[in-house]
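User: My collaborator sent over this chain with a note saying "see what the structure looks like." That's all I know about it. Can you take a look?
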Amino acid sequence: MEGFVLEHGMIGGIAAKYGAKVLYNERIAGYTSFNIGGVCDVVVMPGSADCIRELIAACRSTGTKYYIFGKCTNVLISDKGLRGVVIIIGSDYSAVKRKGTRLICEAGAPLIKVCNAAKEAGLTGLEFAYGIPGSVGGALYMNAGAYGGEMKDVVVCCEYLDTDGSVKSINTADMGLSYRHSVFTGSDKVILSVSFELKPGDKAAVAEKMNETMRRRREKQPLEYPSAGSTFKRPEGYFAAKLIEDSGFKGYTRGGAQVSEKHSGFVINRGGATYSDVCGIIGDIQAKVFADTGVKLECELIKVE
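Assistant: Without extra context I'll predict from the sequence alone. Here is the result:
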């Protein structure tokens, strides 16, 4: 694998063929919302489904490890970096098209871009997602949600790259969408595009509701610091933030990482936080909350090493 990666041959050739940006020995921290992560062998930013398909096929045929990321807003990446090929489906693959009340979005489109498109068209249904920092691909992958709404409420279908390299379509009913989960979660399927079916609404009312959603986020969440959003999933019958605060962790610090004093459900990077700092806090919280309450807190963020 090292020889393949360091020769730059096949991956560089595919990137050049499609005009995709490719970087070697690139530190991944700057591409993540946590601002944590070490040097990766190769980082590619494809601009088409064909490019994504060829990159993955090349990695599989050579036995090269590869990683698929969106906007990296829900991941914690090791300071040791990642060996192999990192494929970032982001701004170079982020077109949003409207057909009536439907928005058809490439997987790298930021949710904020999709929400703004809905707002401009006077379409209602995506107000809950305004301010969620991820891409539509990542949001569907984990069935992201907030303020009473989830992706499953507005997504109607998507196209994805199956494990055999073929492009397939799937409807919402077959996506297995549940709390922070979909059929894509933990699989090798790669989401390529997502279609949202919305409803006609009053443009001013949609904008007002989105602005209110953003106001609530800024008021309650530590958006001024790098983080990966909510660190833990909501345990049934409880609120993670309250359990964490009741166990004495509000403001708890390890190195540059801290449990937010504004919202205990967030672990933030106050400056110079490392992978081990964050993992240490997570482990401490899980152990103490379980000892205090018997509740096992499950991470919402995804650790990658």
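A starting point for your reply to your collaborator: The domain at 2-91 is CATH 3.30.43.10 (Uridine Diphospho-n-acetylenolpyruvylglucosamine Reductase; domain 2).
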